[in-house]
Amino acid sequence: MIQVEHLTKKYGDLVAVNDISFSLGEGDIVGFLGPNGAGKTTTMRILTGCLAPDSGNVKIGGYDILENPDEAKRLIGYLPEIPPLYDEMTVSAYLDYVADLKDIPKNKKNSLKDMAVQECGLEKVYGRLIKHLSKGYRQRVGIAQAIINDPKILILDEPTIGLDPRQVKEIRELIKGLTGKRTVILSTHIIYEVTMICQKVIIINEGKIAAMDTLDSLTSKVGKKRIVLRLKDKSDDILERLKRIEGIRNVFQNGAYYIEYDEDKYEQICEDISGISNQMKNPILELRIETISLEDIFVRIVTGDRRE
Amino acid sequence: MKKIWVIACKELKTYFVLPSAYIICIVFILFSGIFFYNHLSIFFLSKLQPLLWAEVEAQKDLTHMIVQPYLHSLSILYLLIPVITMRLFAEEKRLKTEELLYSSPISSLQIVLGKYLAAVILFAILLCFTVQHMLFLLAYGNPDTGPIITGYIGLFLVGLAYLSIGLLCSSLTDNQIIAAILTFGVICFFWMIGLFKYVIPNPTIVNFMEFFSLEEHFHTFTKGIIDLKDVVYVLSFTFMGIFITYNIVEYHRWQ
């Protein structure tokens, strides 16, 4: 459904998207995860034809977004980070306008509009001016705008940002209901959201794909334990020595040392660590066990250390 | 063409939903009425005063005394053009609604032409509000219809050129006020450039400036003449304005 090959986009010296390639099939529900400024929005803007890439190809349903933009765009529904709403229009007039923009034939227009209104729960505010709507409803109108052409591909850029918890829950449920046969790309920096809605995850960092995996394999480590070690002085030497300890599978440094280990060798490992500490005259400030959360995995991928 | 119309309709509705169009209409109708009344009063006064009348007898008719000066004073409409065009692109950029346009199956050219068309239609509506004054003259006097018709054609054509400037300035910024001031500046420049003929002695430069002054080209229209030179200049000016706007919009998508 979506094929992206070697996509690159620069803003002056800043490389926003750096040689990204991926492909998605029909019905894939993908979370675009990444810190702010990672290149999520730029990638989405290129996919929807808002922005032209410096190099690389985007094919939507077989149509190149630059060579056959109209055909490709007819397959897409896009909700930008800030929903593109005109305050002075009523919800009804706005949806009419979007339907006309998206080339929806006259005989289908009313039924599609009704469907969008119903799916997004806009019946109550149908005749109201958009400027009088709450933020949650504005987001719903934004989503209605994206699905009004019954698109095969739905691209949502941070759809729950800035909403209160109740609205976030409602919008998430709404998005879940929209998935079905559609290919959905959802960008967010809220990891929990991805686990709720998506099957696949693409983690983007500094313009590059840091990881692309199914949610299951990415979350397989969740719930396991690791040691958090904080020493007075930090040095690469310590990192190397820690790695050599028997029973330690991996060490990852981010402020403290995060150590993955074999649980049955815990006591031996603690002894070895304190031995190193004594030898190097580097006192232990903290040594504790914590359970790995999804956030930890995300932070680790984003900070670049993903050795298995 | 259908999509150009979709954009134009939306922009026109926006003009009339917001108070801006009504304020522009009221201001313009008020001023055009005052101007017409002024020229009419001077005409009657001069008839009452034989001395003055003798002086203007050479010109004597309605065309010289009312139609031409009135059409010239209608140029004030051009000062309202920044208000007409300022929001067209600037507001879309500020509210980030341009992403809706760009992700829809519609080309940049269609967007530009649609927005331009909306501004042209509003401008034409404003011009229509002055027609009653001319009908009044035709009903109670017998002015020469030639200069009236060509004068209106001139007003409209020069308006097209200024509107394209407004559209261009609006595409440059996401701030309506900056767009309006910029448009105002450029319009004043092309309006006043002809006035330099009084201060610059060099005839080559004067000719050059007169050629670029839209006001000078408009002047020919009010005499009842449609000169191909004027039409071509004004239309190519308009074309350039739209063409550059189109390129700016495309540039933003490629930058």
Could you give the topology of this structure?
The complex is a heterodimer of chains A (308) and B (255).
Chain A lengths: L1 E10 L2 E11 L4 E5 L6 H8 L7 E6 L2 E2 L4 H6 L1 E4 L11 H11 L4 H14 L15 H13 L5 E5 L7 H14 L4 E6 L2 H7 L2 E6 L2 E7 H4 L6 E7 L4 H9 L3 E7 L1 E6 L4 H14 L4 E8 L2 H9 L6
Parallel strand pairs in A: 3-8, 3-9, 6-7, 7-8
Antiparallel strand pairs in A: 1-2, 1-4, 4-5, 9-10, 11-13, 11-14, 12-13
Helix pairs in contact in A: 4-5
Chain B lengths: L1 H16 L2 H29 L1 H7 L5 H12 L2 H10 L1 H9 L2 H5 L5 H21 L2 H10 L4 H28 L3 H17 L10 H10 L1 H9 L5 H27 L1
Helix pairs in contact in B: 1-8, 2-4, 2-5, 4-10, 5-8, 5-10, 5-11, 6-10, 8-10, 8-14, 10-11, 10-13, 10-14, 13-14
Count of all domains of chain A: 2
Instruction: Count up the helices of chain A.
Output: 11
Radius of gyration of chain B: 20 Å
**Strand coverage percent of chain B:** under 5%
What gyration radius of chain A follows from the Cα positions, in whole Å? 24 Å
Structure description:
The complex is a heterodimer of chains A (308) and B (255). Chain A has eleven helices and 14 strands. Chain A is elongated and about 80 Å long. Chain A is α/β, with parallel strands linked by helices. Chain B is an all-alpha fold. Chain B has one domain. Chain B is 82% helix and 0% strand. Chain B has 14 helices and no strands. In chain B, 38% of the residues are buried. Chains A and B meet through helix 2 and helix 3 of A and helix 1 and helix 7 of B.
Compact summary:
The complex is a heterodimer of chains A (308) and B (255). Chain A has 11 helices and 14 strands.
Primary descriptors:
heterodimer; A: 308 residues; alpha/beta; Rossmann fold; Alpha-Beta Plaits; 2 domains; six-stranded mixed sheet; four-stranded antiparallel sheet; 14 strands; elongated; B: 255 residues; mainly alpha; 14 helices; 0% strand; globular
